Structures are given as structure tokens and as C-alpha cells.
């Protein structure tokens, strides 16, 4: 069994449409794949409709969160919400708020680039985003298209990181509110790349313990942005706190260099996760033709 529990489509900042994503997953030999676009469930229906036989699809969302620590220290983080009820009014409204905030912040970021003479436009970024949730990778692609940087990764290092003057925050959800919302909507919250140091500051262990107390069910241990030492630490924390250790590629198509299934989840972990009660079930060959509601 090969299981990848974190991937992105064009519904957010991946480059494969949801139907292409499930085909890529099957072609890579995966048995289980989760679609986890940023702050949206918009890719679910297309992925479900295009699911190749034999592939189990786990509908999910990657929820943009923040933790306000001591001294007002603000740490942004991502919470994966699996098998959640997308029609839950509170969580649907919160994700809509986040998507609006993403558009507003991307517009301000683009305006800062334009002000400094970079040859990109908001229209171009909007076109690259299509119907998806806008993110910094879309601005990165506009910078690549304009010949400013050779690739999206360089754009992140030189222009888009939170250390750069072009960076603007988005209105992320407090992580403890987010955990409560996911649980209230019948979803399974898993902390994505908890120790991805290359992305910025990470949460202290005692905050992760408090998240476990608040209803977190898993920790992403094997992730391309976590080195061996960080993975070992995350695995130890998961054991100590009774959290399910997971693994994933965080595949973004050609917006990142990581291939799908670059990291995977242990079958035992997947069994533990799938055994938990949730609002909806993974979609497989035995599922009824129509799953879930609308939206
Ligand atoms: P945002 O959600 O708009 O703040 O942008 C963060 C997104 O950019 C995350 O989904 C990351 O997966 C992606 N990202 C972060 N670093 C890189 C990188 N070096 N290359 C491509 N994408 C990245
Ligand atoms: Fe992303
Ligand atoms: Fe993430
Ligand atoms: Zn992700």
C-alpha cells in the first residue's frame, strides 16, 4: 500500500487540474491519495468524478492558520482537515473569509512589485490563478514569465519569503479555533509539516501538546521540507502525544520540484486514521456514485 495524504491541484496552487491529479496519483502507483487544496474544497467533485478504479481518494483541505505566542510572536502554520463536512456553515464561511483575504493580500503584494518596476500585473496573476485559491506561487509564476527569476523556487528565496519587503500577511485562523471548527465539522485535523524550519519559525513542543489536547489527531512526520532530525523529533512527539504520524509529498505539480509520492504514509497510520469517525468516508470502488453535498 502506497499512501500520499497531502497534494494540491489547480483548485489552489498546484498545476494539475483535480482530474489530472488523481491520474498522476494512480500512475505513480499510489493506492490512496488525499486532495488538500488551500482553504477550499472546490477540487473535490472533479477529483471524485475522475478517480481511477482502485485508487482511494481522501477529500481534505489545508487550512491556513496562525498561532499567537508569547510576546505577540506570530507563527503561521497549516492544518490538514480530512473527511470534513464541506457544508458545515461555520467552516465554509471561515474558508470563504480566508480566500477573500488571500485575494486582497495578493493584490497588495503585486502592487508592491509593480511599484518597484517589476513587469507583472494583477490581471496576469489572476489569469494564472484561474478559479483556484490564489497564493504566492501564482505571483512566482508571473515573475518567472516576466523573466525576473528562472523558477518559482528562486522567486520564493529572493522575493516572496516572509523576510522580503513584498510579503504581506493573510488573515489566518487561530489554530485552536481551527481545530475546534474541523472537529465540529466532523473532520480529522492533522498538523502539516510541523517542523518545516526552512519555511520560517516553528511551534514549540508545548504548543503542539496543547493542540493534541484540543483535538488534533495527527502529525505530518515525513515531509520534503523536514530533514531527518526534524522527522525524528516529530515522530517522537507523535508517539508521546498519541498522535498518528503521517507522510506526504505536498505535491504542487510543476510549481515545486517535488514529485508525487516523494514521501508516503505508513499503512498502519492510514488504518488508524481511516478508523476514526468522520463526517464523510474516503471515496473508493465501493462508494456510492454521489458523495457529499454541493459547494
Ligand atoms: P501562501 O499560501 O500564499 O502564503 O504561499 C505559500 C505556499 O507556497 C505554500 O503552499 C507552499 O507550498 C508554497 N511554497 C513555499 N515555498 C515554496 C517554494 N520554494 N517553491 C514553490 N512553492 C513554495
Ligand atoms: Fe501550496
Ligand atoms: Fe502547507
Ligand atoms: Zn500543502
Polypeptide structure, described:
- With 295 residues, this protein is α/β, with parallel strands linked by helices.
- The chain has two domains: 3-86 and 173-274, Metal-dependent hydrolases (TIM Barrel, Alpha-Beta Barrel), CATH 3.20.20; 97-160, DNA polymerase, domain 1.
- The protein has helices at residues 18-27, 44-50, 89-115, 122-129, 136-145, 152-160, 175-184, 205-213, 228-241, 267-275, and strands at residues 3-4, 32-38, 56-68, 74-82, 173-174, 188-191, 218-222, 244-247.
- Strands 1, 2, 3, 4, 5, 6, 7 and 8 form an eight-stranded mixed sheet that branches.
- The chain is globular, with a radius of gyration of 18 Å.
- The mean pLDDT is 96.
- The site of adenosine monophosphate has 11 residues, from helix 5 and helix 6.
Amino acid at each position: 500500500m502506497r499512501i500520499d495524504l497531502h497534494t494540491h491541484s489547480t483548485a489552489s496552487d498546484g498545476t494539475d487540474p483535480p482530474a489530472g491529479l488523481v491520474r498522476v496519483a494512480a500512475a505513480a502507483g499510489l493506492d490512496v491519495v488525499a486532495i488538500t487544496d488551500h482553504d477550499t474544497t472546490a477540487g473535490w467533485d472533479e477529483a471524485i468524478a475522475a478517480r481511477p478504479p482502485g485508487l482511494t481518494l481522501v477529500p481534505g483541505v489545508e487550512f491556513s492558520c496562525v498561532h499567537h505566542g508569547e510576546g505577540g510572536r506570530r507563527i503561521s502554520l497549516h492544518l490538514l482537515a480530512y473527511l470534513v463536512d464541506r457544508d458545515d456553515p461555520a467552516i465554509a464561511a471561515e474558508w470563504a473569509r480566508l480566500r477573500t483575504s488571500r485575494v486582497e493580500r495578493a493584490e497588495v503584494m503585486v502592487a508592491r512589485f509593480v511599484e518597484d518596476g517589476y513587469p507583472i500585473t494583477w490581471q496576469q496573476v489572476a489569469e494564472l490563478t484561474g478559479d483556484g485559491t490564489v497564493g504566492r506561487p501564482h505571483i512566482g509564476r508571473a515573475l518567472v514569465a516576466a523573466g525576473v527569476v528562472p523558477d518559482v523556487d528562486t522567486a520564493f528565496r529572493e522575493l516572496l519569503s516572509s523576510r522580503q519587503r513584498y510579503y504581506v500577511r493573510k488573515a489566518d485562523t487561530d489554530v485552536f479555533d481551527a481545530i475546534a471548527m474541523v472537529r465540529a465539522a466532523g473532520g480529522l485535523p492533522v498538523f502539516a509539516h510541523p517542523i518545516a524550519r526552512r519555511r520560517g519559525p516553528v511551534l514549540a513542543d508545548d504548543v503542539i501538546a496543547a493542540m493534541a489536547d484540543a483535538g488534533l489527531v495527527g502529525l505530518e512526520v515525513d515531509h520534503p521540507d523536514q530533514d531527518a532530525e526534524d522527522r525524528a523529533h516529530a515522530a517522537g512527539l507523535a508517539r508521546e502525544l498519541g498522535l498518528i504520524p503521517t507522510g506526504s509529498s505536498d505535491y504542487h505539480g510543476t510549481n515545486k520540484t517535488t514529485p508525487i509520492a516523494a514521501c508516503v504514509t505508513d499503512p498502519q497510520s492510514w488504518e488508524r486514521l481511516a478508523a476514526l469517525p468522520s463526517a464523510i468516508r474516503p471515496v473508493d470502488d465501493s462508494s456510492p456514485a454521489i458523495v457529499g453535498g454541493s459547494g
